[in-house]
UniProtKB/TrEMBL annotation:
<dbReference type="InterPro" id="IPR036291">
    <property type="entry name" value="NAD(P)-bd_dom_sf"/>
</dbReference>
<protein>
    <submittedName>
        <fullName>NAD-dependent epimerase</fullName>
    </submittedName>
</protein>
<feature type="domain" description="NAD-dependent epimerase/dehydratase">
    <location>
        <begin position="4"/>
        <end position="253"/>
    </location>
</feature>
<dbReference type="InterPro" id="IPR001509">
    <property type="entry name" value="Epimerase_deHydtase"/>
</dbReference>
<dbReference type="Pfam" id="PF01370">
    <property type="entry name" value="Epimerase"/>
</dbReference>
<keyword id="KW-0520">NAD</keyword>
């Protein structure tokens, strides 16, 4: 198969592109390499893909193109030239708190970007579009676990609002043009090569350096931490599933929320260092808990994430120490 993977220099996108290329597919990776966080980490992920493929004599399976999703003419030309069979759209402006201060970045990446991808898929007969949504669309609802059938009409951050908008845009294109789309609501993805703006990275770095970590809502938060290998396996399985309808939304989470204090303890064990905690009130735009109902994922793909936090954080901390010496 011939794939387009957007966000190919990102945390999840780089791993998905790598896995598909290793399976023998032709993969074109797209990323604008912006400076939301250190571009050197993004470049290192791309280097890792090429090095791994070289070990398997498969370097021809992956090509990288630097392009912004908001480049309407460029994206349209890319689709027309390459004639992708499937698209995995993972590129986005991420981060809940960043959206409070930089809202226009989310309009360009998450709304305009989604539109250029949908148009490319529509006009070039793409077989299946799989795209990243987020558990943040659930907001602060009290019913748990979060089910795909729950109403998600009250996002509490602009980031969440753009992800809900992506789902609505996909629904429209599925309805009007019979484009098969599957939106994936990711639940707190972590692991080696993870994003520096996320808690696993920030907490691990601070603990290893002996610095204080900020613990919001006085530690009374829960997250459904999902290991990167589980996310990648889920995505690769989902893109190969024939959708039962032209539009689907699926949760990908560990189905096992972890208290923030227990998460910090897992880092302490993995690093053999104690955290210095600074307890603070709730942050604007944040949610109290996330908890994925994964029954639909299991039914459709016969798969359920299962990596334990202790194992996942141990792998992350080993990578962190190795990468940052």
């Amino acid at each position: 198969m011939k794939f387009l993977v957007t966000g190919a220099a990102g945390f999840i996108g780089s791993r998905v592109a790598e896995e598909l290329a290793l399976q023998g597919h032709e993969v074109v990776g797209l990323d604008n390499l912006n400076d939301y966080y250190d571009p050197n980490l993004k470049l290192a992920r791309l280097d890792r893909i090429q090095n791994l493929l070289a070990q398997h004599n498969a370097t021809s399976n992956f090509r990288f193109i630097k392009m912004d999703l908001a480049d309407r003419e460029g994206i349209a030309e890319l689709f027309a030239t390459e004639q992708f069979q499937r698209v995995i759209h993972l590129a986005a402006q991420a981060g809940v708190r960043y959206s409070i201060d930089n809202p226009m970045a989310y309009v360009d990446s998450n709304l305009v970007g989604m539109m250029t991808i949908l148009e490319g898929c529509r006009h070039n007969k793409v077989e299946h579009l799989v795209y990243a949504s987020s558990s943040s669309v659930y907001g602060n609802q009290e019913k748990v676990p979060f089910s795909e059938d729950d109403r998600v009409d009250h996002p509490i951050s602009l980031y969440a609002a753009t992800k809900k908008a992506n789902e609505l845009m996909a629904h429209t294109y599925s309805h009007l043009y019979k484009l098969p789309t599957t939106g994936l609501r990711f639940f707190t993805v972590y692991g080696p090569w993870g994003r520096p703006d996320m808690a696993p990275f920030k907490f691990t770095k601070a603990i290893l350096e002996g610095r204080t970590i900020d613990v919001y809502n006085y530690g009374k938060l829960q997250r459904d931490f999902t290991y990167i290998d589980d996310i990648v396996e889920g995505i690769v399985r989902i893109q190969d599933c024939s959708p039962s309808s032209s539009y689907a939304i699926l949760n990908i989470g560990n189905n096992q929320p972890v208290a923030l204090e227990d998460f910090i303890e897992a880092i302490e064990i993995a690093t053999a260092k104690k955290a210095i905690k600074n307890y603070l009130p709730m942050q604007a735009g944040d949610v109290y808990q996330t908890y994925a109902d994964t029954e639909k994922l299991e039914i459709i793909c016969g798969f359920k994430p299962s990596t334990k936090l202790s194992m996942g954080m141990d792998m992350f901390c080993k990578w962190f120490r190795s990468y940052y010496k």
